[in-house]
């Protein structure tokens, strides 16, 4: 799986914080009934709302790995338009397209 260099640098510099952060993420994922694909599509929506290029790209990769189709991912991005605005949604669509073109 692709990991940004800054992510790897952070995990090396702060290994205990990184370990605890990863555990928190896993605990949150296991805390409810949503399946992996649904969780990843929701996290994609959150990343779009935060206007996080890295988060959008990471969530797209994870959603693909969890079995989401390109159409499902595009639909998740489209749903962000009325909440986060057209410019934010269109930027996210570009970031998603970058990931999809790599896949």
Secondary structure blueprint with pairings:
Elements: H1 5-13, H2 15-30, H3 36-49, H4 53-65, H5 70-79, H6 81-84, H7 86-102
Main attributes?
single chain, 103 residues, mainly alpha, AhpD-like, 2 domains, 7 helices
CATH superfamily of the largest domain: AhpD-like
| Poorly predicted spans | none
* Beta-strand percentage range: under 5%
The averaged pLDDT comes out at 95
Terminal residue distance? 12 Å
Q: How many domain regions?
A: 2
- The helical percent reads over 70%
Number of strands: 0
Biggest sheet statistics = none
| SS content category | mainly alpha
Number of helices: 7
Q: What is CATH's topology name of the largest domain? A: AhpD-like
Order of helices and strands: HHHHHHH
Summarize the structure.
The protein has helices at residues 5-13, 15-30, 36-49, 53-65, 70-79, 81-84, 86-102. With 103 residues, it is an all-alpha fold.
Structure description:
This protein is mainly α and 103 residues long. It folds into two domains: 1-32; 35-102, AhpD-like (Up-down Bundle), CATH 1.20.1290.10. It is built from seven helices and no strands. Helix 1 (5-13) packs across helix 2 (15-30). The longest helix has 17 residues, at 86-102. The mean pLDDT is 95.
